[in-house]
Each structure stands twice: as C-alpha cells, then as structure tokens.
C-alpha cells in the first residue's frame, strides 16, 4: 500500500513497473535514483509464470524475484510504508519500493477486460494516479502497445531507457575525424616532430587535443599528399600523432588484399597492430569488414605466426523462418551460418593461390585447418590463449553476452567484433541497447583497443545502390 506519506514529495516520481522491464533488466529496481517504485501484484504473478526454463527471460525473471526477496528480507518492520532502497542498492538508489499490499478496486472502460495482466496493471496505474493527483505517476513498460493503451486512458507511460548506451546512435563514436582547415595553425606553436624507420610522429597541443582519444584516427584531405595519422599518446592537453602504414599500396598488401578507401586503411592498421587487443568494425553490408578481418588474421596466423589459429563465431539468429535442428558436430551445425566465412575464404584463396587448381585446393585445405568455427552456446568457462577471435554479426549480442565473449580472451589473444547496428535481427535489442554499441562506447579511449566505422561499400555497384535506396 502506498501511503499518504509518499505524496509529500511532489518532485520525486512514482514509477509502476511492468513485468517486461524486470524480465529485461532485473537490476532496474536500482536504476531510478531518488524516485519511488511500485510493483503491482500482477507483475509478481507474471514473473512467477515466466520463471521456468533456461532462456534469458526465465533467468532474468528468477533474478528479479531473488532481488525483491532480498530487499523485503532486509526490511524487518513490514512493507506497508515502503522499503528504503538506499542500503540494498548500495546507495545507487535512494527512493522506496512499494509492493501492492491491498486489494484495489479495478475500474477500466468496458472494452478492456481486467482479466488480462496488462489491463490489470493499467487499472492499478489509474488507481494510483487518482490517489496522488499532485504527484507524477508513470507506467514504465517495454511493451509499445501497453504504452499506447496507457496514453489512450490518459495515463503517463515511458519506455525503460536505462539499458540504452546512447539515445541517438548518430552520436556513436566513429573512430575517425577530419581535421579542421586551420588545424596546423592553431596546434603548431610548440610542435615537435621526429621519425623512425617507418613512421613520422608529431607531438602537439591545442584546443582539439583535449577531445582526441587513444587510437582515434585523424585525416586532412586538404594537404597534398593527404595526411592520415592516429593518436598514440594522450596526456592532458598534449597528444602524439603517428602516421599510418599505407595498406592501399600493393607493396603492403595483406594476403593479396589492399585497402580501397581511407576507412579500410584505418581498419587494417588496427587489425595488423599487435598492441591492439580489441577491435570493433561497424559498417553496412559490403564495406569489407569480414574480408579485411580474415585477411589480417590469415597473415598473422600463417605468415607472422603471431597467433596459433583463427576462431570465428556468431549469433545464430535467422533472418526468416527457422529451418529447425541441424545434424552433425558443433562445427557442422555452424556451417550454414558461416556462409560469409566461406565466401571470403574463396576470395582470399583466389587472391594468393598459385599452381593452378591443385595449388588452390592445397591452399584452401591449409587455410581451413587454421580457421575454427565455434558456437556461442559453449563459450562459458573457456579461455582462448594466443588466438585471433572474430565475433561476426555482433549487433545481435546483448551487453551481457558480449561481456561473456570478450572475457574469454587469454594472453596473446586478439578479439575483433564485426557488425552493422542497422541490421539487428534479435527482437529484444535496439540500436541503442545492442552489445556492439555497448562495447564501442565503453572501450573508447583504452590504449589497447580501436574502433572504426567503415563508410563506403566496395562489394559492387548493385549492392551499394541497394544499400542506399532500399
């Protein structure tokens, strides 16, 4: 029961939690800061009905129930007055949690039968809104139709935004920026420059230096030849820029592949640098993410012997109808999902093979012996040592799944995540809450990670035009 005591604070809001919010993020109980939470009895019933099974939803339902149990047990004085969340949340939240402890007279329009769980919760929201007319009473739900129905009844409703890394994915870190026309005038006062065998370095300070991140690429198209570099050191107002290896030149080809545009050159500099342990590549279809990653992997596994083998994995989310169970071993079951791997291996095999058909067959067998395909389902508890791990279609991973995969990396392992956040096939993820968006944002600025968003498609003129107009 929410008492009149709660209505004294007009500034703090009262949020009523729909079941899908708790099943989406059990820690949402601690994500509302100073505001109060209310959990209807129907939400508890639906949690109980969804707790069985091994799915992510069932696990989250059990976790939410356990968290509420811990909160209630930590309040020996009863729950009628609400439970202070300050101690249970370790001061992440300072509001109170109210559980429905009274029978509520449900009044809804005749077209909405109260027997349905959603409508029951809407009736509770309507009751609380009338009880506290001076206080914001807001339903929080991941269900779009539920929010529409609430607004149709004159009730406030919001989506649960706390799991979103960014509100607008246009703000997502791109990994590269163009230098302004006056860059060298404004940053050249105390410029230091030196060379080693292959690269030129610039130490400079100025207004832009503070905003640059570790391993961020910078380019100047007005200079001749064009200036491309990346940030190798950040020390407050001072940064060090290092010129790049030009992988667009045939003499620097990687397994027969050269960069076709500026962003591909940036990507190959990340993929070929042994100091970079974690790489994320974003880009629409046909920008060369998988091809560049595999070419760099094969060069470092077979030529440089830097890694022992390539391991490739991806989420098995079908685009259309599921075709059912697949026969065979783990690798055989994953084969239909790895068409992109086979297509790119064919390209790479054709780019370097000599000796006719026999030579190509031998090279293909050698390459396939060093590329392993693994399923995500069996990753828990594994450690990959000295491996080149490729996570394809990473936009379909949740942040929790992404953490599970990236933490598999042992000594000497490089992890590369590929994806296109505009092509999310999982029904429960959005561009803002994808695990790929999550790691791009969280790893920004770490000296041993790098990111680049590939802009130009290089697959074919048909694919490029389709990506633009469809």
TrEMBL record:
**UniProt keyword annotation of Chloroplast present:** no
* Gene Ontology cellular-component annotations: cytosol
Which SMART domains has this protein been placed in? PINc
Q: Which SUPFAM superfamilies match?
A: P-loop containing nucleoside triphosphate hydrolases (SSF52540), PIN domain-like (SSF88723)
All copies of the PIN domain together span 13-148
State the similarity comment: In the N-terminal section; belongs to the PINc/VapC protein family. Belongs to the PhoH family.
Task: Write down what this protein is called.
Answer: PhoH family protein
């Amino acid at each position: 029961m929410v008492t009149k005591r709660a209505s004294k604070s007009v500034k703090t809001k009262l949020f009523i939690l729909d079941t899908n919010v708790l099943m989406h993020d059990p820690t949402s109980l601690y994500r509302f800061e100073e505001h109060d939470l209310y959990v209807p009895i129907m939400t508890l019933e639906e949690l109980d009905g969804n707790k069985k099974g091994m799915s992510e939803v069932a696990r989250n339902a059990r976790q939410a129930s356990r968290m509420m149990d811990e909160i209630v047990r930590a309040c020996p004085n009863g729950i009628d007055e609400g439970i202070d969340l300050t101690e249970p949340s370790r001061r992440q939240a300072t509001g109170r949690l109210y559980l429905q402890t009274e029978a509520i007279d449900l009044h809804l329009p005749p077209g909405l039968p109260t027997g349905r769980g959603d409508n029951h919760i809407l009736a509770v929201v309507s009751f609380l809104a009338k009880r506290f007319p001076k206080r914001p009473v807001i339903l929080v739900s991941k269900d779009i139709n539920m929010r529409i129905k609430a607004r149709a009844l004159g009730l406030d409703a919001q989506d649960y935004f706390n799991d979103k890394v960014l509100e607008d994915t246009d703000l997502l870190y791109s990994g590269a920026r163009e230098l302004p026309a006056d860059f060298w005038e404004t940053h050249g006062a105390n410029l230091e420059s030196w060379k080693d065998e292959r690269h030129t370095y610039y130490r400079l300070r100025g207004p832009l230096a503070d905003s640059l991140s570790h391993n961020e690429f910078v380019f100047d198209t007005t200079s001749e030849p064009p200036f491309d570099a990346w940030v190798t050191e950040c020390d407050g107002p001072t940064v060090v820029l290092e010129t790049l290896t030009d992988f667009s030149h045939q003499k620097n080809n990687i397994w027969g592949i050269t960069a076709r545009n500026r962003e591909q050159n940036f990507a190959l500099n990340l993929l070929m640098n042994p100091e970079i342990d974690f790489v994320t590549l974003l880009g629409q279809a046909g920008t060369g993410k998988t091809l560049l990653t595999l070419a760099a992997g094969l060069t470092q596994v077979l030529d440089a012997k830097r890694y022992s083998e390539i391991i490739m994995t991806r989420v098995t989310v079908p685009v259309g109808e599921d075709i059912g169970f697949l026969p065979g071993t783990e690798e055989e079951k994953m084969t239909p999902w790895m068409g992109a791997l086979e297509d790119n291996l064919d390209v790479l095999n054709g780019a370097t093979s000599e000796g006719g058909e026999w030579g190509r067959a031998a090279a293909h067998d050698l390459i396939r012996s060093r590329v392993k395909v693994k399923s995500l389902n069996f990753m828990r508890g594994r450690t990959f040592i000295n491996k080149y791990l490729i996570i394809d279609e990473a936009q379909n991973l949740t942040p929790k799944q992404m953490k599970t995969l990236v933490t598999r990396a042992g000594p000497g392992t490089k992890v590369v995540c590929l994806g296109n956040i505009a092509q999310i096939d999982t029904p429960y993820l959005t561009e803002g809450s994808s695990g790929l968006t999550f790691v791009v944002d969280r790893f920004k600025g770490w000296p041993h990670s790098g990111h680049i968003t590939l802009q130009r498609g290089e697959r074919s003129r048909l694919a490029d035009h389709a990506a633009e107009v469809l």
